């Protein structure tokens, strides 16, 4: 073994990923070519960027190109580039480990079922390792730009758990990837096949891709080989929209996002004004595996005057739109812009609001033109979008219009009702958008709080995602309509507020003694007992005042280790209910107390879906049942 040669094991995650990829991506295996060309393109982009500061890095060869050839002797497929290259440490880091956080957890979710795993792998992005789908041996030779010719590195592996790395000499900078094709992948050793794939997948990458192919010269019949450029090599986003086909947009997305599924929608725009920029935004058709990991990289690829500056610049989109992928190319930022500068630059701030608007417009257009597709989007990314009203006050109305809810009209658990749908179904004199937050859809549907509204044919939005109570804290109104929580004190129903007050007062008077007695019996549980406007069938409900924290929010806060002060709810009762009538005539104080508590228990069950004193409740119900049986 040469002195500087080392054999190292792959990180466990890499081993798992390799195994999986080879088995689950078989039917999709041609994507390896796109992945490798993408990497080469990025390597050239990075070098061009670094050379802005240090032109020495490009010394000797200013061409940035990708070359593909098929070794006539060995039939190996070789992809090389004149990009940035890698040092030995970088090779170990990049081609021996996976740097994405959350990878181990992600891999645990894989089932071993080829089809569903293929889908999951797509969320993950496969990259360099996809070479092993078609090759049983991969050799990488690379020299970092600026490094000595004697300090190049050779990495080789059979994808079986380990790799070997050694220092070699290499005349040129950049990276070469040499693949010994598997027997059943020999099609990738044919230049016509490669040419076809490059035009299909990589036409739009901005670095020229050359293919070494055989051609018969005119003069004699001898075969000569020549380099032929096989892609257009103009950055796609710089072309006029009319010139770009849907297929090209789609392929470019796959390149940018390392996804092999088609995007759901895109928006390509050139903006001239306060800041000049071109944006190409994409809506993916699936969530990345780390969508809920706040630390994961997100954002757009940033270019300045067509020069690549950085991957995943997060300064151009708000967090709630973190699933959007794509490119921004600024005409007026400086080429040596850094992350620190991005965070402070006022032009970036104004680009961000423009890009955000475009992204929201793209979603609105999708919702209008293709509601079915929009529904698919909503099912995948809806919860992200629900962070919007809190994060982005400026676009609150636009975001609210994009939200989808379940409601008492549609009944089923699918979130399909928009605010505009709701407004189209308002009853006479209705000025409010009524909603109910509950911990499950089933609980919401059967909730006693809905009784009076249902009776009057008033639609109620039903919310049961974890984030919903928090979301509703930020949604106060939409156009001229107020959002109203049906479980809160002071509920007014359309056209009846005055009348209700009167009825309430009369009921209060009529049953004053009962309410006072109940209040005394439940002094530890409730702050007040009042007649209800919202009940028709149930005996009682618990009502919170405007200022109180709802049960869902309380649970979230307490789960996060933050105990919340308890404020006692109001018990609203339906004095017409049999149980209340029974209470009204009860003379025995103990029995009154037990029955009153039962009314409270039921109200709590209706409000929170659970009881704070389940054993006591069972005892009370048992006593009642045995009395019935007697
Ligand atoms: P990703 O591209 O998603 O980061 P990859 O597995 O494809 O993941 O590549 C890992 C890293 O290896 C890249 O981020 C890059 O730093 C490096 N790399 C891959 N291919 C090349 C190349 N042709 N030239 C220079 N660096 C490369």
Explained architecture:
The protein has 630 residues and is α+β, with helices and mostly antiparallel strands. It has four domains: 6-229, Heat Shock Protein 90 (2-Layer Sandwich); 236-374, Ribosomal Protein S5, domain 2 (2-Layer Sandwich); 404-485, Rossmann fold (3-Layer(aba) Sandwich); 497-548 and 567-629, Heat shock protein 90, C-terminal domain (Four Helix Bundle (Hemerythrin (Met), subunit A), Up-down Bundle). Helices cover 38% and strands 19% of the residues. It contains 23 helices and 22 strands. The chain has a nine-stranded mixed sheet with strand order 1-6-5-4-7-3-2-8-9. The chain has a five-stranded mixed sheet with strand order 10-11-14-12-13, with helices on both faces. The longest helix is centred in the middle third of the chain and has 24 residues, at 346-369. The chain is elongated. The structure holds adenosine-5'-diphosphate. Residues 39-40, 43, 81, 83-86, 94, 125, 127-129, 175, 258 line the site of adenosine-5'-diphosphate.
Poorly predicted parts? none
CATH class of the largest domain equals: Alpha Beta
Please give the count of helices.
23
Q: Structural class from helices and strands?
A: alpha+beta
CATH superfamily of the largest domain, by name, is Histidine kinase-like ATPase, C-terminal domain
Please give the alpha-carbon distance between the first and last residues.
93 Å
CATH topology of the largest domain: Heat Shock Protein 90
Sheet with most strands: strand arrangement:
1-6-5-4-7-3-2-8-9
Spatial shape: elongated
Main beta-sheet annotation: 9 strands, mixed
**Residues in β-strands, percent:** 15-25%
Which second-level CATH architecture of the largest domain applies? 2-Layer Sandwich
Q: Supply Rg.
A: 33 Å
Number of distinct beta strands? 22
Number of domains: 4
* Quaternary organization: single chain
Bound molecules: adenosine-5'-diphosphate
Instruction: Report the average pLDDT across residues.
Output: 89
Percent range of helical residues = 25-40%
């Amino acid at each position: 073994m040469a002195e500087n040669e080392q054999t190292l094991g792959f990180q466990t995650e890499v081993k798992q990923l390799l195994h999986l990829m080879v088995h689950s991506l078989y039917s999709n295996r041609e994507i390896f070519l796109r992945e490798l060309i993408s990497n080469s393109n990025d390597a050239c982009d990075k070098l061009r960027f670094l050379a802005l500061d240090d032109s020495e890095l490009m010394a000797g060869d200013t061409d940035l190109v990708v070359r593909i050839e098929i070794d006539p002797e060995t039939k190996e497929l070789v992809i090389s580039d004149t990009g940035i290259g890698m040092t030995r440490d970088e090779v170990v880091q990049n081609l021996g480990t996976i740097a994405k956080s959350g990878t181990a957890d992600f891999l645990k979710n894989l089932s071993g079922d080829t089809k569903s795993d293929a889908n999951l792998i797509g969320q993950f992005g496969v990259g360099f390792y996809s070479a092993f789908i078609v090759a049983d041996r991969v050799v990488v030779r690379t020299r970092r730009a600026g490094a000595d010719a004697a300090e190049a590195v050779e990495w080789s592996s059979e994808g079986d758990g380990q790799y070997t790395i050694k220092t070699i000499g290499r005349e040129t900078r950049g990276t070469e990837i040499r693949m010994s094709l598997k027997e059943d992948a020999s099609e990738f050793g044919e230049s016509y096949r490669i040419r076809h794939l490059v035009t299909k997948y990589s036409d739009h990458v901005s670095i020229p891709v050359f293919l070494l192919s055989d051609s018969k010269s005119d003069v004699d019949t001898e075969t000569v080989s020549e380099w032929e450029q096989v892609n257009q090599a103009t950055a796609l986003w710089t072309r006029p929209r009319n010139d770009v086909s849907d297929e090209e947009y789609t392929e470019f997305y796959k390149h940018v996002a390392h996804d092999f599924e088609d995007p759901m929608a895109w928006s390509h725009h050139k903006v001239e004004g306060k800041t000049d920029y071109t944006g190409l935004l994409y809506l993916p058709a699936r969530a990345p595996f780390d969508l809920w990991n706040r630390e994961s990289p997100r954002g757009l690829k940033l270019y300045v005057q067509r020069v690549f500056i950085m991957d995943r610049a997060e300064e151009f989109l708000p967090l709630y739109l973190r699933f959007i992928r794509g490119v921004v190319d600024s005409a007026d930022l400086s080429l040596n812009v850094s992350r620190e500068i991005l965070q402070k630059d006022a032009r970036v701030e104004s680009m961000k609001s423009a890009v955000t608007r475009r992204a929201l417009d793209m979603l609105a257009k999708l919702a209008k033109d293709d509601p079915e597709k929009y529904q698919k989007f909503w099912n995948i990314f809806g919860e992200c979008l629900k962070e919007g009203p809190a994060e982005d006050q400026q676009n609150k109305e636009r975001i609210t219009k994009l939200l989808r809810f379940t409601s008492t009209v549609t009944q089923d658990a699918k979130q399909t009702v928009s605010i505009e749908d709701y407004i189209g179904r308002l009853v006479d004199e209705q000025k409010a958008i009524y909603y109910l937050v509950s911990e499950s859809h089933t609980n919401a549907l059967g909730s006693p709080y809905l009784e009076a509204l249902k009776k009057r044919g008033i639609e109620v939005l039903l919310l049961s995602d974890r984030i919903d109570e928090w979301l509703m804290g930020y949604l106060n109104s939409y156009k001229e309509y107020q959002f109203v929580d049906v479980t809160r004190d002071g509920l007014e129903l359309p056209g009846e507020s005055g009348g209700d007050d009167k009825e309430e007062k009369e009921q209060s008077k009529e049953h004053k003694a009962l309410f006072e007695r109940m209040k005394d019996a439940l002094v530890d549980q409730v702050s007040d007992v009042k007649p209800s406007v919202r009940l028709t069938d149930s005996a009682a409900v618990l009502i919170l005042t405007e200022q109180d924290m709802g049960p869902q929010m309380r649970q979230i806060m307490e789960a996060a280790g933050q105990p919340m002060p308890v404020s006692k709810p109001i018990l609203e009762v339906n004095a017409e209910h049999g149980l209340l009538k029974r209470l009204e005539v009860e003379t025995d104080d103990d029995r009154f107390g037990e029955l009153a508590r039962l009314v409270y228990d039921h109200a709590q069950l209706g409000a929170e879906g659970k009881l704070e004193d389940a054993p006591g409740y069972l005892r009370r119900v048992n006593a009642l049942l045995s009395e019935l049986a007697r």
